[in-house]
Amino acid sequence: MSLLGGREYFAQADVTARFRAAFRIGPRPHPFSTKDTLMRSTLRIALPALAVLGLGTALFAEAHADPVEARQEHMKAMGAQLGILGKMAQGETEYDAAAASEAAAELSALAVGLTEAEGWWPEGSDNTSGADTKALPEIWENMDDFESKMDDLVTAAAAMEAVAGDGLEAVQGEMRTIGGACGACHSDYRERS
Ligand code: HEC
Fold it and tell me: Is the dihedral angle over the CA atoms 192, 113, 57, 27 positive or is it negative?
């Protein structure tokens, strides 16, 4: 696990455009305004200065260096998107085709991101290690199965994305599959709280 695992992860050339969109990063669709240009020239001076001091790297690494935190944050982000869909499915919030499609697209991108993340599950980062984690040691005994459960989630999230705009019933139907994909992994590989 590299110290800059998170940084490399975001720098990966094959991170999908949708994944970038989910994090609201990447190229802007419109031309830069004067303010942006000013900001950019400030950054052009400030960034190398920070780099010389090693500060930029240190600050970035602090946010992403801990693989346990990185994977937990990612899980939470998936939970937030699934929550939007789940509330609609249960009638807690009104079905909204655009909002459902957006949540499903973000969840789908996050699911792909989970499979692409490097260094989030280093050996020894289980709940017997003293780290603040619920990851069970069984993950490392069954890494193939663990990863195939990630793939199942990608499939389920893509299916949701395909129909989320088609109506409440479609969302309700796919919720079961996605909930099942999250739950199948949690029941085998996450400590029960
Ligand atoms: C391939 C296995 C796997 C899949 C699929 C998976 N999870 Fe997880 N999830 C885990 C593990 C392992 C943990 C414990 C991580 C830790 O504590 O280090 C976890 C933790 C979490 C947490 C707690 C994060 C925290 O704050 O500590 C949430 C929330 C969560 N998952 C939501 C989801 C949702 C929602 C889905 C489906 C959309 C999902 N997970 C799919 C394995 C998985």
Answer: negative
